[in-house]
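Internal tracking record. Fields below are filled automatically when a chain is submitted to the structure queue. Please do not edit lines marked as system-generated. If the sequence contains nonstandard residues, flag them in the REMARKS field before resubmitting.
Queue: standard
Priority: normal
Entity type: single polypeptide chain
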Amino acid sequence: MKSNKVAHIPKYLLFFALVMFVWACSEDNDIISKNDRDYFPMQVGAYYVYDIQETRYTPIDGREDFLYQSKISVTDSFTNNAGGTTYVLQRETKIEGESQFKYLDTWSVRSEPTQVVVSEGNISFVRLAFPLSKGRQWNGNALNTLGGEESCGDDSTFSCDIYEIGDIGFQFDLNGEVLDETIEVIQNNNIDLIVKQDVRKEIYVRNIGLVYKENTILEYCTVGPCIGQQQIEKGQVLKQTLTSYGKE
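SYSTEM-GENERATED OUTPUT FOLLOWS
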């Protein structure tokens, strides 16, 4: 005779199965929620403070060294004509010895499905292009008229400033905290010790944004006996490091 009894499952097994199900779902959600735009997160009220070391070279003043801080605050956002969101950035600076930041200018950021566009005043740059992968290249000046020293597109005479994803997933020490969800954007790596040097790169960390920036843009003397002597006529060397960030 067939029994009508239902097999009894111990309560601890049901509890364990429930915990595993919730854990698996949360893991899947973590994976799904991650996307490339996490490397340039934008939120009204967020702020970022950077230490900046800068050296400027001019024919008149020669070499000048500067130490200062830059504070970038996300002060507002609005829906743009493309249906996306534009964030308003307020930039402030404070030189060594000063106690208060002073207003410098206003920038904006558009974080789009395929790219992040930063408008520095009236000049727009494509800082990141998605999807992010090692070796990925794009024209950082695609939305401005600055051109560049490289050729791209079907027309070999079309000038571009080619950005490229360099290293990915390397360790970066941010104030003693070692982070490894990182990407390196090489904006240029032209090391010409005869005419000029243009080396630019930025490092981004997921859920933080820009943590480090380095620019070396120098023009050398190319007339007379100074040729090939790396005698700097004009240019800039800049290192920018994130020191604090949060939400006000």
